[in-house]
Specification:
With 151 residues, the chain is mainly beta. Helix content is 8%, strand content 54%. The chain is built from 1 helix and 9 strands, in the order E-E-E-E-E-H-E-E-E-E. The strands form 3 sheets. Strands 1, 2, 5, 8 and 9 form a 5-stranded antiparallel sheet that branches. It has a two-stranded antiparallel sheet with strand order 3-7. The longest helix has 12 residues.
Length: 151
């Protein structure tokens, strides 16, 4: 006899799950001191900067992230179509040279760009019922590089 309204006996895997909902842009997390070079000449000058420390930048979040960071990274990578990591290391000795316009200051900071994204943690019960959503804003490391600006 077939009972179409009866569950097939399989439950859900009970536990916390993370669901990314949207992503925004990359934000830079510096490693070491901000560097600056002022060009007091009437011509464009070349400014050179070198990273002076090594540092590792990991995941940061606000809200309730009730799963391991690596689980959130996998979900964000999959659902948002980007490559992110649980941590990245910016190493000493990386150099960059940029043009600094006349009477301007060029600033540089070496570090890790982190993707800002939004999502929620939610508990799923063995009977497939779901708990309340716990909102999370999460910054996941994406790439190592320089943030450069001038004024």
């Amino acid at each position: 006899m077939n009972y179409p309204d009866m569950p097939d006996g399989r439950g859900c895997d009970q536990g916390w799950y993370y669901h990314p909902t949207s992503k925004t842009k990359d934000y830079h997390k510096g490693v070491g001191a901000e560097q600056a070079n002022y060009n007091g000449t009437s011509r464009t000058a070349k400014s050179s900067f070198a990273s002076e420390v090594t540092g590792t930048v990991g995941i940061a979040y606000t809200g309730e992230l009730n799963v391991k960071g690596t689980v959130a990274v996998a979900e964000i990578s999959s659902k948002c179509g980007v490559t992110v990591s649980a941590s990245l290391t910016a190493k000493i000795g990386n150099m960059v040279a940029v043009d600094t316009p006349s009477h301007k200051t060029t600033y540089a900071r070496y570090g890790v760009f982190r993707l800002k994204s939004y999502g929620y943690s939610q508990y799923v019960y063995v009977n497939c019922g779901k708990g309340s959503k716990k909102n999370v804003t999460i910054y996941t490391p994406r790439r190592v590089g320089w943030a450069i600006w001038e004024n």
